[in-house]
Amino acid sequence: MEKTLFGTLKDGREVYKYSMTNKNGMVLEVLTYGATIQAIKVPSKNGELLDVAVGFDTLDGHENYSDYQGVTVGRYANRIHNAQFTINGQKYSVTANEKGKTCLHGGGEFSKAIWEATADTDNSIVMSYTSPNGSCGFPGAMKTKVRFTLTDSNEVAINYTAICSADTPVNLTNHTYFNLKGKAGTDVLSHELRIDADSFTPTDEDSIPTGEIRPVKGTAFDFSESKPIGKDIGESDPQLVMCKGYDHNFCLNETAGAVITAYEKETGITMNVYTDMPGVQLYTGNFLDGSVIGKGGVPLNKHAGFCLETQFYPDTPNQPTFPQCNFRAGEIFRSMTRYEFKC
């Protein structure tokens, strides 16, 4: 485990980077700012070490230009309709940071916080953060820990725990943009993707689920068999047109194996995803427009990366038919996601 100063925020707070290397030479880098995955460097079929995490070379990019690249998001990942929900008969109004009416990723609190880091082992770091009572409008003080582990099996394992002093919804995830080509300036449309999901949750014009659980069979959203991300992304399906690509929650099937597999032929890298969460948000970088400079000084263009945000479904606090995520005061939230890389 190597700790280095990554940079200093505008307000003077220091941000540190923790780097881990396994026996195969694979590297994981995590920042204390946003509990952010800064880099995942994976050996390709040619033995070249490639960074498959899209983002920024410097802290300035994360602080000023981020579209949540690599960050931990919460208290509630994804969206809450009208930035409101009700628990125990009490209505809570939370930060409306998207279009002035939707709460996105808990108002951005976790992704902009400085997390306290504790090295657990040489290849495991624990990031801790306490969200004060009422922060961004959420009830109770919530203590959160996220453990990042790099295994000798070339896995990046993320374990989340949280406990709150009041009844509250909890939904935590990581927002890494992946590109298995490991090369700046490329897109992910040729990546082969499989998602073990029979259905997805269509959305309205504000990206809020309509409440429908729609079968994927016979639609552009069918990834039950591996296919290129770009194969159907340009279809006239209103859901794709509205979102300029995929930005949807898939309802994962229960399985003991990998629920998601991504593969890039050029590098030979396969990424298998394991999780105990009921859903995953596939986002294909639809709103990246080249106006922001990423790693290597190269613009982040449309489809420069894809996200697999394991999660409870969006807007679950307002959707009683979805798998629920309200946790009682003192009840511990736990979840796990593992990204396994093979070549």
Give the SSE layout.
Blueprint (H helix, E strand, L loop, with lengths): L1 E7 L5 E8 L5 E5 L4 E8 L5 E3 L1 E2 L4 H7 L6 E2 L5 E2 L3 E4 L2 E4 L9 E2 L4 H4 L3 E6 L2 E8 L10 E9 L4 E10 L3 E2 L3 E2 L2 E2 L13 E4 L1 E5 L12 E2 L11 E2 L9 H6 L3 E6 L7 E5 L4 E7 L3 E5 L22 E6 L14 E2 L4 E11 L1
Antiparallel strand pairs: 1-2, 2-3, 3-4, 4-5, 6-18, 7-17, 8-11, 9-10, 12-13, 13-14, 14-15, 15-29, 16-28, 18-27, 19-22, 19-24, 20-21, 20-23, 23-26, 24-25, 25-29, 26-27
The stretches of 5 or more residues where confidence is low (pLDDT under 50) are none
Placed side by side, the strands forming the largest sheet appear as 12-13-14-15-29-25-24-19-22
Envelope shape: globular
Mean pLDDT: 97
User: Major β-sheet, in short?
Assistant: 9 strands, antiparallel
Helix content: under 10%
> Beta fraction of the residues?
35-45%
Radius of gyration: 19 Å
Helical segment count: 3
Going by helix content, strand content and strand pairing, the class is mainly beta
Q: Could you tell me how far the N terminus lies from the C terminus, measured between alpha carbons in angstroms? A: 24 Å
Number of strands: 29
Report what the structure shows.
The protein has about 350 residues and is mainly beta. About 5% of the residues lie in helices and about 40% in strands. It contains three helices and 29 strands. The chain has helices at about 60-65, 110, 240-245, and strands spanning about 1-10, 15-20, 25-30, 35-45, 50, 55, 70-75, 80, 85, 90-95, 105, 115-120, 125-130, 140-150, 155-165, 170, 175, 175-180, 190-195, 195-200, 215, 225-230, 245-250, 260-265, 270-275, 280-285, 305-310, 325, 330-340. Strands 12-13-14-15-29-25-24-19-22 form a nine-stranded antiparallel sheet, with no helix packed on it. The chain is globular and about 60 Å long. The model has no long low-confidence stretch (mean pLDDT about 95).
